[in-house]
TrEMBL record, chain A:
It is found in: Cell inner membrane. Keywords: Cell inner membrane, Cell membrane, Membrane, Transmembrane, Transmembrane helix. Pfam families: PqiA (PF04403). This is Paraquat-inducible protein A.
Length: 208, 201
């Protein structure tokens, strides 16, 4: 099968909000989608710069999110500060190993995967690389789909904070790590939304 | 504007639209992204589902989610108890994130969905159709009820060693809401643009 035409070649542009196929405005001009009113652009504005900015900010927050404890449990005067990782270990030992694996995947593997995948996509898009385009497209969809599951531990801490308040018997308190973690998740989501997947296929070195 | 064409959002490849049979999914020949899938649910069915989601959402928010017991004392939590606890205990940012992704955005999404579906059913775009469709597009990634359900399960396992744990109707409401949201995620709302015609000027 011969390569199907791309919108740029036909002078068309797809509206990212409603999917409408529109006649492309001039190379620099901006137009509004006649159907939904969103700004029509060939590519998301400043996609690479914005995506890098969110990704780097997310990575900076990810460090305290993992090093600082996310919650404190006080039980009969016994104070115990938990990090993301120690929470996973505790769940593995005392609770159920299968849930520990899920929490580990959501809180540690998914954010790491997002950093590595998005950085790779951004570098390749900048170089207009033709390397593994189909796989890169697939990875982007995967990362976009699973990213928000990282919020899991943030919700666990919130629930425990609300539930465990038996006065001097025991108590759960949120610690700053959980705030950094929540912000990391939001920032990685913004980073992957800012990335324009169409850039993966813009390999023509002469194109603007 | 040519409605027989379709542009892949992931790679900008232009495709010709073709009718799909039951269960069929159209994928981009270039990058493999999903372009279109056969719609099993009509507007009436979707409207019924939105109504059900609304009821389930009320159940999930009015009844407690989990109750803990220790030495005859009992504590139960509702979603808003969880949000307020984070607000009061020094994590207001987390409280705002939770309130937005678990309450306000899902609620807004259901209201807007109801609005556009009612108009699609009449076959005419009324007031607010356009902004509602645009808002639905942007809201979609920011509802996290299904993550909250899994979080509740993890929290239950964590405290089971120290407390008696009982699950409450709110949790079942959330589980049902999670399943309904999953159904909606598979529905391409963009076809509502075609179902609801622009009123003649
Ligand atoms: Zn494609």
């Amino acid at each position: 099968m011969s390569a199907p035409p791309r919108a740029v070649e036909l002078g068309l542009v797809g509206c990212t909000v409603c999917g409408q196929v529109c006649r492309a405005p001039g190379p620099l001009a901006q137009a509004a989608c006649p159907r939904c009113g969103a700004v029509l652009r060939r590519r998301k504005a400043g996609s690479l710069a914005r995506s890098w900015a969110f990704l780097i900010a997310a990575f900076i927050f990810y460090i305290p999110a993992n090093l600082l404890p996310i919650m404190r449990t006080v039980s009969l005067g016994d104070v115990d500060d938990n990090t993301i990782l120690s929470g996973v270990v505790e769940l593995w030992v005392k609770g159920s190993p299968d849930l520990a694996v899920i929490v580990f995947a959501a809180s540690i593997m998914v954010p790491m995967l997002k950093f590595v995948v998005l950085a790779t996509l951004l570098v390749c898009a900048q170089r207009r690389s033709r390397w593994a385009q189909v796989q890169r497209a697939r990875l982007y969809r995967l990362v976009d789909l699973i990213g928000y599951w990282s919020m899991l531990d943030v919700f666990v801490v919130s629930l425990l904070t609300a539930l465990v308040r038996f006065g001097f018997f025991s108590e759960v308190e949120p610690l700053p790590g959980v705030i950094y973690f929540g912000l990391t998740v939001i920032l990685t989501m913004l980073a992957s939304m800012s990335f324009d997947p169409r850039l993966t296929w813009d390999t023509d070195k002469d194109a603007p | 504007m040519d409605t027989s064409l379709q542009i892949c959002e992931d790679c900008d490849t232009v495709h010709r639209r073709r009718p799909l049979s039951r269960g069929e999914v159209a994928r981009c020949a270039c990058c493999g992204a999903e372009l279109d899938r056969h719609h099993g649910l009509g507007v009436n069915e979707l409207l019924a589902l939105v109504l059900t989601s609304g009821i389930v959402f009320v159940v999930a928010n009015v009844w407690p989610i989990v109750t803990l017991g220790l030495n005859g004392q009992h504590v139960s939590a509702r979603l808003w108890g969880v949000i307020l606890a984070m607000w009061e205990r020094g994590a207001p940012i987390v409280a705002v994130i939770a309130a937005a992704t678990l309450f306000f955005f899902p609620a807004l999404r259901m209201l807007l969905l109801g609005l556009v579906l009612v108009q699609a059913r009449r076959g005419r775009r009324g007031a607010g159709f356009r902004p509602a469709m645009v808002a639905l597009h942007y809201l979609r990634p920011w509802t996290m009820n299904e993550v909250f359900v899994l979080g509740t399960l993890v929290a239950i396992v964590k405290v089971r060693a120290y407390f008696e744990v009982a699950t409450d109707p709110g949790l079942y409401g959330y589980v049902a809401l999670m399943m309904l949201i999953t159904v909606f995620s598979g529905v391409d709302l963009r076809r509502l643009w075609e179902l609801a015609r622009e009123p003649a000027a």
